[in-house]
Every structure is written in structure tokens, then in C-alpha cells.
Amino acid sequence: MKLFNNLFGKFQKGVGIELSPQRVNLVQLRKLSQGLKLETLTSVSVPEGVFVNGQIIDSSTMAQFIQQALTESKIKASRVATAVPGRESIIRIISVPAELDDKELREMVLNHEAGLHLPYPREEADLDYQKLGYFIDEDGIEKVQILLVATRKEITDTYIKTFEQAGLQIDVLEINCLALIRTIREQLRQFGTQEAVVLVDIEFDCTEIAIVVNGVPQFSRTVPIGIYQMQTALSEVMSLPVSQNIEEFYEISIPLTSIDEGKTDVHDDIHEINPGMTAMMKVLGELTDELRRSINFYLNQNENFEVAQIMLAGPGSGLGQLDEFFTQRLNLPTSQIDPVAALSLQIDEQRYSAVERSGLGIVLGLGMREAE
């Protein structure tokens, strides 16, 4: 399906498949009377150069790894849910008059309003939208809030082509952060209507930052700092090759240092750490700075809100003591998300360690499309 027609719809059949620079993750969930059951979870390694900077570079090779994931999972599927990275998408909240009927609303949002918010021509975009709720504006006019999402057609077309080569039809194509929000929506409900949660999804080659209020992303951006950049900094100092394999990365635990009054920079107190760790800590310092800028920018635009929590997700969030590190550096409570625990899924604890589970937030959110 070429457009985002089913972006917010229910996904009745199929599986959730997540593509990333170093893995294809596949999941199938089943709804039970009490919660969800994990039917299948398969992860296949992808070599370097197939998926780069958020884009599928080699469709035929990626299709082979999708087929391998299907084969290993021992399921037959023809339709799937998948997602594009945040850097390849636009998410905006807009307001339009509430008096519009559905046809008029669609025309206004997808043609007039979309053109105002896209950084590229409207005809080059695939879009979808969802009503969020009604409110009275400062002039006393009733409006409806709309969540507008878009990506470039060339990205959408590449995904469609890749999955077709794997013998699959894309039923649902959404945005990574929306899938992640679905996985942790119960946790997000504990926060008030004026409390913002910062989702920090640390992926292999980037970090996707989304500031969420009432379960809806209000602000999002992608920072080109991820596991790869940390590994590269570590490896260059230690004269080691950089690998797509991140198992050794999970053995690292960030050293926490005492912070004196007025001494908050990550570079201040690391003279006793080995050179490789010092280099990696500098990269983490850059990520901390980007997080701080994003939070400050949002709060400057939204004075009535406060940031209540930072939530860490993605494969990079499994780094030891990363939650304490951000709590210390940003002076905001930070927690690492366990997507399996968030959904109360029964899972083989020996097969999937806590740090491995940290990277399953997006694919489980995609799998929930079928189970709902």
C-alpha cells in the first residue's frame, strides 16, 4: 500500500519487522484474555553497507535478510507492519477549525496544511493524520488538534520495493517513535497533562529524541550519535577494528564521577579513566549536550510544561549505568526501558538478556498492531 492509509489503523494479520543498520528484527504477538503472548521473536544480523543513514541502500540484499528472518521464525506471512526512522519522517501537531466535515478536513490537512509544514514539495510526500482532540483557542473558536506525519515518497517506495522482493506486502508503514510509544503507553499514562517525557532511542548510528506529552510526540529530532560513534571513539584510541557486533559494547559500564558544585561537564573528572573510555565519554558528553539543547528548546517554546522523566530505549540504552549518567549530568530522573516488562510479556530469560531486550521497543510496538 503506497500511502500511509493504515498508519493509525488496526493491523489484523501479519508480523512486525524492524530494519536497522545491523539487524532485522521480526516479532509476532498474540492477544490473550490477559495481555499479550510473544509467539515469535527473531533477529538476523545485517552486514555493513546495506542500511545506511536511515535508508535502505541495497534492497535485494535486505530482502534476503528479511526472508531469512521469516524462515528462521518458521512462520508464513504475506503482510507486515514496518517503520521508517525518525530522520526520514516529519511529525507535526497542527490545529484546524472543528466545523470541517471529514472530507473537508482531509482536503485541508493533506493538501493545504501539509504544504506549510513540509521541507519538500507536497507531491514528493506520503502523508497521514489522526485527530487528537478538540479545544477552544484564545479567540473562542473550537479547533481540532491533528497529528500529521509524512515521509518522502522515495523512502516509502524503497521500503515497498524491498518487502516486495521478500515476497511481502506492507500493510502498515509508520514512524519508529510511534511504534516505541505504543510499547510503553501504559508507562506514559502515569504522567500528567503538563508533564513531558523525553524518549531517547539510542540506535546503532544515531539517537532519535522525541518529547512526548499525553502519549503524543510534540517535538522530535535525530542526532548522528549512536553505538557506532561510541565504538569508533573507543576503538581508534585502543587501535581496535570497529565492528557491527555490539555484544562487547554491553559489557561496558560507564564510570560515574562525583560532580562538585558548578562542575557538570562530562570532561571534568575523567583523568583516572583509561584512554578508550575517555574517548567514549567525550562522545557521550556530546550526546548529553544535544539532549540538553533539545529539552531547553522545547521548554522555551512551551513554558507551561515541565520535563518529568527521561526514558532510554534502543540497543544503546543497554549500556551499563547510562540512566544514572544522564540523571547526574542533566539533573532529570532517567530510566532504562525494558519493553518486555512494559508489555508484561512472557519470554525466555536465558535467551534474551535485559540489555538485549532494551532494543526491542520498536519491533514489539509494530507487532502490537496485529494483536490489538
Q: Please tally the β strands and state the result.
A: 15
Structural class: alpha/beta
Low-confidence stretches: 1-5, 7-13, 258-264, 266-271
What does the average pLDDT come to? 87
Share of residues in helices: 25-40%
Strand order of the largest sheet: 3-2-1-6-10
Description:
It is built from eleven helices and 15 strands. With 372 residues, the chain is of the alpha/beta class. It has a five-stranded mixed β-sheet with strand order 3-2-1-6-10, sandwiched between helices. Strands 13-12-11-14-15 form a five-stranded mixed β-sheet, sandwiched between helices. Strands 7-9-8 form a three-stranded antiparallel β-sheet. A hairpin with a 4-residue loop joins strand 11 and strand 12.
Feature tags:
15 strands, five-stranded mixed β-sheet, globular, 372 residues
Question: What is the topology?
Answer:
Layout: E1 15-19, E2 23-31, E3 36-45, E4 51-52, E5 55-56, H1 59-73, E6 79-84, E7 89-97, H2 102-117, E8 125-136, E9 142-152, H3 153-165, E10 169-175, H4 176-183, H5 185-188, E11 195-202, E12 207-213, E13 216-223, H6 227-238, H7 275-301, E14 306-313, H8 322-330, E15 334-336, H9 339-342, H10 354-357, H11 361-371
Parallel strand pairs: 1-6, 6-10, 11-14, 14-15
Antiparallel strand pairs: 1-2, 2-3, 4-5, 7-9, 8-9, 11-12, 12-13
Helix pairs in contact: 1-3, 4-11, 6-7
